[in-house]
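Comment thread on ticket #2218

A.B. wrote:
> Attaching the input chain for the structure job we discussed in standup.
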Amino acid sequence: MVIPKEVKSVIQNLQKAGFEAYIVGGCVRDFLLGIEPKDWDVTTNAKPEEIQKVFPNSFYENNFLTVTARTGSKSPELAEIEITTYRLEAKYSDKRHPDQVKYAKTLEDDLSRRDFTINAMAMDEKKKIVDLFDGQKDLKNKIIKTVGNPEERFNEDALRMLRAVRFATTLGPALSGSKGFAIEKNTAEAIKKNSIWLEAISKERIRDEFVKIIMADPSTGSGPSAGIELLRELGLLKYIVPELLDNYGVSQNKHHIYDCYQHAIKSLEYTAKKKFNMHVRLAALLHDIGKPKAKSGEGENATFYNHEIVGARMAFQILNNLKFSKKDIEKITKLVRYHLFYYNVGEVGESSIRRLVKNVGPENMEELLQVRQADRIGSGVPKAEPYKLRHLKYLIEKVSKDPISAKMLKINGNDLMSILKIKPGPRIGQTLDVLLGYVLDDPEKNTKEFLEKEALKLGKLPDKELKKMAEKSKEDKSEIETKEDEMTKQKYWVT
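C.D. wrote:
> Ran it. Output below, let me know if you need it in another format.
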């Protein structure tokens, strides 16, 4: 790992002006973990107005003593570097924002007000680490631990409780041993004791941290399913998606080996392993959220009639409460609503598939099938995509294609009647069939000029000859449709 020249330049320019300067916070943590930092932060004893004199091409538009210096780098991560004056923070009345931000005199003062030991390290341009709170030791041992008293840190900013779970879920690659970080005992106990403080945090902030947990990569950290379980164990889940807790311990029927909560977690785990997008991951987590309310009976014959409809309404409310965008809510709610579609080869016709595609939207069909795969794996079955699901994919593609018909032509029956000066009759359809044959042979011929010219030629043919040409064109069209269908079948291993 190397420190980018843009970052070194910022530090050196501040030092030349007579100030201290260090790389600080999460970028130091990531650097030590061997992860390329997404952004670089610098801390200094220079005040904002002094920083701006060193970097005239900068801007300062906040109350947190942070100046953003433009470097001119072509790399988005290095084009702007935030430089913050050493600071102390006073009382946090709203458990999120400091009532007042004051200048600090030393780097130690600045590091002591940070959230976790692994984020309270500084590094100079020569890679020398300033580590006053054993952050390197906690990184090595994969421990998430607050700087100082955990209750004080969480009382200052209650969102830190969620950040602790996020770091425990997402950090990696693992330096040694098993994946994932653990939250230190006293830190975890403080979260359990004070989880209610999360109610003081805006839903938007909670949503952003929750999405980062959902999008965790299980190949580098413990993954989102472990994150959800950690939220439950620490008492935080009830302030984010309390409906999931209603699923805990709710047994299912003979088609499932896990209870409703574990089923949701296993489904989410599969989507993360497959690197599916946020919509699919959230839909997998919420797809059976309505089961407890819809449950009837117990044991292997329990039923959950209309749970997908109940679940869709609940998913809408959950996502709306967390301030997701209308577009995200609509998509995820649709995936939950239609995840239980019925399909058996030979039983469900193309008309039913067309209705499903119409309801869900062709643009959402691939994601719906991914949710179905996650549902299957979450139920304990070994295969995510059996033959009938592949056959369904084939049918979806088949019904989604534009049919081969005269409607594809840049000319229609009314045009022909005007060009040929004839009334409605069989010659109109026969002429269109012949013209379609020309276009199927060479799609570039589908222009109004070419088709009008050919129509005039066909208009001079006897009825018998035109009819013969039209029948030949229909045979060619049928052959093309058969070939296309075979190619689509092969794509999904369907015979």
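A.B. wrote:
> Thanks. Noting for the ticket: The first strand starts at residue 21 and ends at 24.
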